Amino acid sequence: MIHENEMITRRQYISVCFLALLSPLIRQLPQLAPYTAGRAGWLAGLAALPILILFELMMTRLTKKRAEGEGMTEIFLRVYGKPVGSAVLLLYALWMIAYAGFVLVGGSERLLTTAYPRGGRNLFILIMGALGVMAVLGRARTLARLANILRPLLLVTLLLVIFAAFPYAKLGTLFPVTVQDIPPIFNAGVRTANVFLLVVSFRFLEDRVEISQTGKRALPFLRLFLLLAVLSTLLLAAILANFGASYTLRHTYPFFAMAGNIRLFGSLERFEVPILALWAFTDFVLLAALLLSATTIFRRVLHSESRLIALLCALAATLAALVCSLTNADLSFLAETVFPLTGAVCTFGLYPLTFLVGLLRKKI
Amino acid sequence: MKRKRWLILFVLLPALALLCGCSSVYTNYKDIELLQVIQTLGIDRGENGGVVLSVASGGNVNGGEPTVLSISAPSIEIAMEKLQEHFARTPFFFAHTQFLVVGENAARNGVSAYLDYIRHMPLLRSDVRLFLVRGCDAKTLVTGSIDGKHDISDELTSLLLDLEHQNGMQVFSCAEVSRQLMENGASLVCAIDAVDTKGIVFSGGGGLSAVSAGYGVLTDGVLSGYILGDTARGIDLLSGSLSGGPIALETESGTVTVQLHDGKTDFSPVWDADGNMESLRAEATVSAEIAEVSDPEAAEQPGFSDSVADLLARRAENWLRESLDFSSALESDFLSLGEKLARHDAQRFRAMPRTWRETLPLLRYDVSVKAEITGGHKAGTSSDIREQRNGGSE
């Protein structure tokens, strides 16, 4: 049973989801969109919107009979039964921990590539890992409040970079979009939806979220997806109009390269480093949300409220990150193949399957 | 409660260690007051495929001499390292580099490696403006332009303003050149000449100066030719960036100088029965005003503006033809015609049996220019004044 002072408002919960998704938005989208759809890749966000809406409608139906204090863990256990449900959930939790480890090593790699070329990865991993330990041992409410405070700051920063980059952009090169571009745009839309639907991992925190009094449970997520679709369209349009598809793909972090070229009032320049520092918050929120979700799963399945579980999850993620770093694991392979593929299995495989089984067994 | 205190202490101790300052943890810490901000980099091809890196800091705000140095090394990264080692007291700061000057010899061997370095190096912005120095190496220009308090950085800053705001010529950044090379296989780059100013009166001390020459053409990253002088305006007219800059036209009554305002070109491809592009119609419009005439009386004659407009149109037509023919002759799409035509009629362009690279050398051009003279010089007031004084008669 969740204590009253652990409960978070729906607005705070959506802020956590939004901030957490800003990390893959900057990291993955500027690469996958032009790779899949070339010059027309800027429409990937809008192409993802129908998929996101349909998915959210499915999730709303899946969680329709959720009582206050009940989360996705209980729904999975109810749908699949305790043995199978526990096994599925434990595997999913391990995936979240692995992904959290990837977020640690990916975030440190970004800092090195963009600002500290001669720095060491491990120090950043350890510091962020330590922060992750603090986050997961602390209350979810603290994280949610932090996310709520940072949301407007990060949104304004992102919009500032996008609109400041437009004067340097050749918008004409984004057009025309022809009939032949539709299949690659749709493909890019599916992959973009896969990125944004990482948010479904955070539904395991919904046991802490106050139930909507208006009954419009889908609306907050639909608004979030609409915002993300618009932001990603603007972001990709700015990047592709500045660099073109081929040159964008040669950058590791095109967003920060674009931010680095901005000059305000003819004299203020090299903004990418403070923006990079701000984006460390998004990594932190993503890391904390994944670890909290994984911890929630382990606690429900193992019927234990021990803080040791939280500590072990955080340490496991940090260890996974350190192993990746020390063995010089191919981060591109992890970023472009392993995690998108496994994420797609979870998102487009597990949840629809759970929905169908739940309907058939009349558990939802 | 006790456990919480230990936890807080456990977290605070490493944080306190980090508060000793960046120099205790990071080895790349630099005191901001000692930084030497480098504004211009010069790159030449060195011996055995290495580089000769030249750096210039620009005018010193404290009134001292600018820093201008040059060093040879196997690569740019090692050259920067060696420079830093030799001048350890003044750490170099490359984050605000504005200009990259590449020597002609280096450009003939290929600039792709340099552009790639600029792209991936976080210290340098990818929108650093790229200049190609004609007939000379970058080291000569960068080290030879120092003149008391000013150096090549100040020269290039003035040149940039002059070219972009007054003449409408384009100075491309490394990012733009890289993008064009990747998308079209070819790109233009602003070409400059290193001019000796010692012989010029009131030149302020002598040394080398950078003047605009036109555009260099890079094909697959290698310098393949130049478009110089007035013909370079054809490039600007084709890209729609033509603005400003005087043109001297020879009329029957003497020299007429017109000031260009703007111009643009519309393309219409002509397709054959097989779906290939057989020719390209380029229709350009140019507007200008008369700035100066050598014979004011002739300027009063009816039809004068029209005759000047005709001359301007013929001149602009030559610019366009030379630029387009040069592109076909080199088989180099530095004008981004493929990209423009693909936008114009994407379906037909993609359906062409021949590739664009095969089509470009075979393309015929049908060029027409319409020039408009607007406002400008009002000539011939002397005879009006004489008429008024004499009551309307000589």
What report would you give on this structure?
- The complex is a heterodimer of chains A (about 375) and B (about 400).
- The model of chain A has no long low-confidence stretch (mean pLDDT about 90).
- In chain A, α3 (about 45-60) crosses α8, α5 packs across α6 and α6 (about 120-135) packs antiparallel against α12 (about 305-325).
- In chain A, a hairpin with a 3-residue loop joins β1 and β2 (about 270).
- Chain A is mainly α.
- Chain A contains 13 helices and two strands.
- Helix content of chain A is about 75%, strand content about 0%.
- Chain A has one domain: Up-down Bundle (Amino acid/polyamine transporter I), CATH 1.20.1740.10.
- Helix content of chain B is about 35%, strand content about 30%.
- Chain B has an eight-stranded mixed beta sheet with strand order 4-3-2-6-7-8-9-10, sandwiched between helices.
- Chain B has 15 helices and 14 strands.
- Chain B has two domains: about 35-230, no CATH class; about 240-394, Nutrient germinant receptor protein C, domain 3 (GMP Synthetase, Chain A, domain 3, 2-Layer Sandwich), CATH 3.30.300.210.
- Chain B is globular, with a radius of gyration of 28 Å.
- In chain B, a hairpin with a 5-residue loop joins β12 (about 255-270) and β13 (about 275-295).
- Chain B has helices at about 1-20, 20-25, 75-85, 105-110, 110-120, 140-145, 150-165, 175-185, 230-240, 295-300, 305-330, 335-345, 345-350, 355-360, 380-390, and strands at about 35, 40-45, 50-55, 70-75, 90-95, 100-105, 130-135, 185-195, 210-220, 220-230, 245-250, 255-270, 275-295, 365-375.
- Chain B has about 400 residues and is of the alpha/beta class.
- Classes of the chains: A mainly alpha (about 375), B alpha/beta (about 400).
- The interface between A and B is medium-sized, with 32 and 28 residues.
